[in-house]
Specification:
With 586 residues, the protein is mainly beta. Helices cover 1% and strands 49% of the residues. It is built from 1 helix and 34 strands. It is rod-shaped.
Length: 586
């Protein structure tokens, strides 16, 4: 501020003409009061304030939290989402232990008169049955239903049929025809369910039909099949991390052909069936999954926001904030969609915190790399599939409870905001889904909020305009200060200015607290404002050198236009006058 002499030539030489060179030096004049006092009315203090631009108020030097985008101040923070593995533990099934089954057949005795050297085919009755169980324990809790599973290696099933070896020789032959064996059900094999002259298998019943198998000279006949997996249908539901698949095995029927030329046939024949089923390890499955993923994200630090926002009385409701999240869906190629909620927890200087969560979002429509974009905002645009509602997002920079216009409790802005994805699950039906480390979910996020205030916001800013004093003004004891100005602004918010006088050291001078503020409405156009500052308790103000402005920015409308560096507050025709008295020593 330019300092100008306020009072010039208040006294002339004639005003002190009684002091002459002819004074009798015998008189002691040291006790004579030479102080003079003059009444001052409407003494004008020269003030010249430049147009105030927000870029001079909001200092962005070395500030990483707020930037200028398209002419608007934007609070902008972001970070990365560390990779989190999507992995499902393997499932191994031990080989079931199955006891042998047996059947005793009565051999038909033919009269010698028939002239036959062999016995015609006769029926093979069913044997007793033995149970088996494929037991899967400690199954990954993400698996809910195994409908169809594929194994790492083939499941092998070997059946051994034994007959007394003394019946066999070079000229003797025993064979089973149309042999029906009850085997484990659900096996995924290469065999058809029915057909003439070929082996068939029905996975629903587990019935294997063998057209013919011959007993070897060691008295044994062998049937062997292999399977690449199991089709469990609706019976593969996993409960408490366990699934048991059980059934029975045994001989179900068929016929026997005995051609014995060099032996005496017994009246009966015992046939014993032994079963050897391998264990196996699952490679993949089709079924239902409910995979919960715990994603951890580093918190947002807000320790270096501009000073004008860093006030304990600030109550900041952001009008149009937005969080965009780019996150990889590692299982998108299997048709599995992830979903969850974004949770933000604001932690304040007093150690207290408050959390807010978005609506449920889904990882839909990934790009070729499996990256999904999610946009969370209080105001969802209809038809935009990647946008989800976060009703409370505009309030993460302040404290409130339910009522968006709640009065701040003096917490100020949070020191940090932790970001997390809660209840993040991949849920649904999958086909041929591998049981292994499948991939990882990673990505990044960006919090962007144009500095537009929603209804109820309050922001405080203080500044001091000094250096108004002069040698003469220092001798004025002020009783009242009157300020008038014509104010214009293109700010979209109203501003309440309170003014108190300060001395040369910038210290506030005590005054009466009435009539010390004026309000500038949003978009004010040449509005005349006035205020009066009075000395406290009828006294005087001394050492006046300027004023301290405290600006309270208040959003009283639904206008959410963002602040920008080129917005201005302009005070024209400023007139500051003082009343009091001028006192000096001559």
């Amino acid at each position: 501020m330019k300092r100008q002499t306020l009072v010039n030539g208040l006294l002339t030489l004639t005003a002190v003409s009684f002091i002459t060179s002819c004074v009798d030096d015998k008189y002691d004049l040291t006790d004579i009061d030479t102080t003079s006092r003059f009444t001052v009315n409407k003494l004008t203090v020269p003030v010249n304030l430049s147009e105030i631009k927000l870029e001079n108020v909001i200092n962005l030097d070395d500030n990483e939290n707020i930037t200028v985008v398209n002419g608007e101040y934007v609070i902008q923070k972001g970070g990365s989402i560390a990779p989190t593995e999507f992995s499902i533990g393997s499932v191994e099934v031990a080989a079931p232990k199955i006891d042998p089954t047996s059947v005793t057949v009565v051999i038909p005795q033919l009269p010698t008169s028939t002239g036959l050297s062999y016995i015609p085919e006769f029926d093979l009755p069913a044997s007793d049955l033995q149970s088996y169980e494929f037991k899967m324990e400690n199954v990954d809790k993400a698996l809910k239903l195994l409908k169809d599973v594929k194994t790492v290696d083939d499941i092998t099933i070997d059946v051994e049929l034994s007959v007394p070896s003394q019946l066999l020789g070079a000229d003797n032959k025993i064979s089973f025809k149309d042999l029906k064996l009850q085997l484990p059900w659900g096996l995924v094999t290469e065999y058809k369910e029915s057909g003439e002259g070929e082996m068939t298998y029905n996975k629903n019943t587990g019935l294997l039909t063998v057209p013919e198998v011959t007993v070897n000279t060691d008295g044994k006949a062998y049937v062997a099949i292999k399977a690449s997996g199991l089709d469990l249908g609706s019976k593969g539901k996993i409960e408490n991390g366990m699934l048991a698949v059980s059934g029975e095995v045994g001989i179900k029927g068929g016929s026997i052909n005995i051609d014995v030329k060099n032996a005496t046939l017994p009246s009966s024949l015992k046939i014993v069936a032994s079963y050897n089923v391998s264990g196996f390890k699952l490679a993949s499955f089709s079924g239902d999954i409910d995979y919960k993923m715990d994603i951890r994200i580093a918190p947002i630090s807000l320790s270096d926001l501009p000073d004008f926002l860093d006030n304990s009385e600030t109550n900041l409701f952001i009008a149009n904030p937005e969080i965009s999240v780019d996150i990889e869906n590692p299982v998108a190629k299997y048709g599995l969609i992830g979903e969850g909620k974004l949770k933000l927890t604001s932690t304040f200087k007093n150690g207290k915190s408050i959390s807010r969560s978005s609506d449920v979002f889904k990882l839909q429509d990934p790009d070729k790399d499996g990256i999904c974009r999610i946009i969370l905002t209080p105001n969802v645009i209809e038809g935009q599939e990647d946008m989800y509602a976060f009703p409370d997002l505009g309030y993460v920079l302040t404290y409130y409870e339910k009522d968006p216009a709640a009065i701040s409790l003096g917490w100020g802005l949070p020191e940090s905001i932790s970001v997390g994805i809660e209840d993040f699950i991949f849920n649904g039906h999958v086909d041929n889904f591998p049981l292994s480390n499948i991939g990882s979910a990673s990505g990044d996020y960006s919090f962007k909020a144009p500095l537009g205030f929603d209804y109820g916001s309050t922001v405080f800013y203080e500044t001091t305009e000094g250096d108004w004093g002069s040698e003469d003004l220092d001798k004025v004891n002020i009783k009242t200060i009157d300020l008038t100005a014509v104010c214009s602004t293109d700010l979209p918010v109203s501003i309440k200015l309170s003014v108190v006088p300060v001395d040369k050291a910038g210290n506030v001078i005590a005054v009466n607290e009435d009539n010390m503020e004026f309000e500038v409405p949003a978009y004010a156009d040449k509005k005349t404002v006035t205020l009066k500052i009075e000395a406290k308790n009828g006294g005087t103000i001394s050492g006046f050198d300027g004023v301290k402005f405290k600006a309270t920015i208040e959003q009283k409308s639904n206008n959410t236009e963002a602040l920008g560096p080129n917005l201005t507050i302009k005070l024209d025709d400023i007139r500051v006058t003082v009343d009091g008295y001028y006192e000096t020593d001559f």
